[in-house]
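Subgroup meeting minutes
Present: P.N., E.W., G.H.
Scribe: E.W.

1. P.N. recapped why we're keeping a running log of single-chain structure predictions: easier to compare across weeks, and new members can see raw inputs and outputs side by side.
2. G.H. added today's entry (456 aa).
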Amino acid sequence: MASTTNTDRFSRLKALRRPAGAGAALTADMTDRDGILALKRRAGAFAGASPDIPEGAEQLARILGAEVRRNEFGEHLGLRRWFADTIDCAPPDIHLNAGALRLLAPGAADEVADPSRWLFLDTETTGLSGGTGTYPFLVGVAWWDAGGLEVEQFFMREHSEEHSVLVALSERMAERPVLVTFNGKSFDWPLLDTRFRMTRKIRVPEPQAHLDFLHPARNLWRPRLGSVKLQELERYVLGWHRGADIISEFIPSIYFDFVRGGPPEPIVPIFYHNQMDLRGLAGLSARVLSLLADAESQSKDGFELFGVSRICERRGQSDRARKLFQRSIDSELPVETERIARRSLALMAKREGDFATATGLWESMLGGSREGLEAYEQLAIYYERHSKEPHEAASVTKKALAELRRANRAGTVAATLYRRSRSRFERRLQRLERKTGRALFCPTAAESKRSPGESN
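Output recorded in log:
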C-alpha cells in the first residue's frame, strides 16, 4: 500500500474549510428565531452540546396549559391540576390512621399518620426495568388539599432538564416528607435516588417515611382479582373506570420520538395516565387505611376480611387476626382460600393453647390437599404429644396415608408433596409402633418395592 503524502493530508484539511459564502448564510439565519435555532443545532452537533428543546415543546405546553418553570439548575415544564371527583376520596381520619399505620408501617413515628404530610409520587420513565441509563422524564406528585387532590407534574422537555426536575421534586418532598407510592419502594424511589446521586450536586431528599400500598393491596385483593394492577383495583375496588388509557410499554418510545422532534400530541395521554395513577393511588390508600383501621365495620367481603386478618397475624395482632379469620370463614370464600384461612386460624389457636378450636378446625379440613394433609399431621401431633393417645395418633396417620394414596391415584397431589408426605407419615407410624409395642405399620411386599412417586 502506498504511503500517505503530505499533499493528501492537506487536501483532507482543506475539505473541512467553510465553503465560500457560509458566513453570509449564517448571518441571514440569525435574522429570525428559526435561523437562530438552526445555528445552535449546527454548533451543538460539532461541539457535542446537549440537544435543543424539541420544536413541539411550545405547542405541548399550550395543549396542556403548562408553563415553563425555572430554578438554579435550569428549566422544565410544569403543570398543576386540582381534582375533586369521588375517586380521590377524602383524606382518612388521622385518628383511624394511627391504628392502621401500626399495621402498614409499625416502626413509623406517630406524625406519619397525618395525611397532610403525605406526598403521592408516580413517575414515567424512559425504561421499564430501571438502571442508571433510565430517566424519569415525567415526575408526578399529589397531595390532598381543599377537599380534593392537587396534582403537580414536572416534565423534562429534553434530558438536560433533569436537574431542574429533581430540584422541584426535592422542594415538594421538603414540604410533605411522607412518601406514598404504589410499587415505589421497588421502582420509582430507587430510580430517583440513583438520579439524585448521579448529579453530584443535588442532595438526595430523605423521606421521613415511605408508605407503599402495593403489598397491602396484594394481601387484600389478589386472592379475588388475581391481578393487582392499579387500573384493575380502581375498577373493581374503587368502582371507577379511567376509560381509554395508554399502554405503559409504549411510553418510552413515544417520549424518545418527541425528543427527536416528533409531534407533541402523543405525549398528552402520558400526562393523563400519570394523573390517573396518582388519583388512583390516593383513592386506594384511603380504602386500604379504612380497612386496616376498622375492617369489622368497613367490609363484609370475605376476601378483604381474610386479607386484613393475614396482615394482623403478620404484625402480631393475634386477637384481632383470629376474629377476622373467623369472620372470613363465615362469609363466602372459595374452597382453596377457606382452607388457608382455617389453617391460619388453627395454627394461631394452637400457639395460644386453644386445642379445642384447633382440633375442630383440623378435622374440618381433612383431605388430599396440602392443607388437608397438614391437618392430618397436626391432629396426629396433638394426639401423640398433648392428649397422650398414641393409638388415636396412629389411626389418624393411617387415614392420612390412605388419603395420600387416593390423591396420588387421582393425580391431585404433586409428586414431590406425595413423596415427602408419605415418608413423613410412615416414619411417624413406625415411631408410634415402637412407642406402643404393637405392629401398627407393616407395608406389603408390593408397597416396599414400589418407587416413592409411583401411583398405588
